[in-house]
Design a protein that fits this description.
Blueprint (H helix, E strand, L loop, with lengths): L1 H12 L2 H17 L6 H25 L6 H22 L3 H18 L16 H21 L5 H24 L11 H5 L1 H17 L9 H19 L8 H6 L3 H13 L2
Helix pairs in contact: 2-3, 2-6, 2-12, 3-4, 5-6, 6-7, 7-9, 9-10, 10-12
Length: 272
């Protein structure tokens, strides 16, 4: 059991699970816009996410020369492999897709790498973290697959981009509730500013535009509306039961599984 737990923790803390969530959203875009599966796009999304998240989480451990555990050494090695793989997949993408990817990679770099003398990185700018992460997720999982196949940016895609942005924002706010007792007060996260109860209320309110954006599409898919109801209810329950005392597994596994759950529902619905 200890070995299995260690492997599971490595899977979570090595950002392999969150990378699966990003991949699930890329596949959602393929499904919704009838795009063919693109191995290079999928590989770049997965490996790029894994490397980016691990870099954001652990680069300070090396920069400040903190003790490096065996697990972190393994994560570092896996991240190096993911970085090389992401680079190979990136070179296989079209030029327009590469430019789009560079824009979002640039945002990720600014989020992590020191930029200003008194503020080490954009993560430390009050309240900006949630918007940068949500923007990058929405861009990589909606815009890049569309650009790769050469499709035009249409109204339906803009709606999906906004919907994806809202979903990621909602999930991040659940994370911030769980992390409230550990976050530096200087971060000025939303729960720190307005409190847990108001953050939960904000999340529940944000679920409304997330759902009703579906009605503005050029073609309304009734099955998708049903799937989205299930997703909204599940996300609302995760929001309601989120507390700063919850285990990290609550967010690292269960909350980050919501995009995977959504994609699973869509695949299941397509067979009904």
């Amino acid at each position: 059991m200890k070995v299995l737990k260690r492997i599971f923790d490595l899977y979570l803390h090595g950002s392999m699970h969150v990378a699966m969530s990003v991949l699930a959203l890329v596949l959602m875009t393929n499904h919704m816009f009838n795009l063919p599966f693109n191995f290079h796009m999928a590989g770049f999304a997965y490996c790029g996410t894994m490397f980016s998240y691990n870099f954001m989480k652990y680069e300070s451990w090396y920069r400040f020369k903190r003790p490096i555990s065996t697990n972190l050494k393994i994560i570092t090695a896996l991240s190096a492999v993911a970085f090389v793989a992401a680079g190979v997949f990136f070179m296989m993408l079209k030029r327009q897709t590469q430019i789009t990817g560079i824009i979002f990679f640039g945002l990720t770099a600014l989020y992590t790498v020191p930029v200003f003398p008194k503020r080490p990185n954009l993560r430390n700018l009050s309240g900006i973290k949630v918007y940068i992460v949500a923007l990058c997720w929405a861009g990589v999982t909606t815009l890049m697959p569309i650009v790769e196949v050469g499709n035009e940016i249409v109204t339906d895609l803009i709606l999906k981009f906004c919907q994806r942005f809202l979903l990621v924002l909602i999930l991040i706010l659940i994370f911030e509730i769980i992390d409230l007792s550990e976050d530096d007060p200087m971060l000025r996260t939303i729960p720190q500013i307005i409190g847990v109860k108001m953050t939960k209320l904000l999340n529940l309110i944000l679920l409304l535009p997330f759902y009703f954006l579906e009605f503005f599409k050029s073609t309304i898919d009734n099955m998708q509306l049903i799937v989205n109801v299930v997703l909204v209810v599940a996300t609302a329950l995760f929001t309601i039961y989120a507390t700063p005392n919850r285990s990290k597994y609550y967010t690292l596994f269960w909350v980050e599984s919501i995009p995977i759950f959504w994609f699973g529902l869509v695949v299941l619905a397509s067979y009904l």
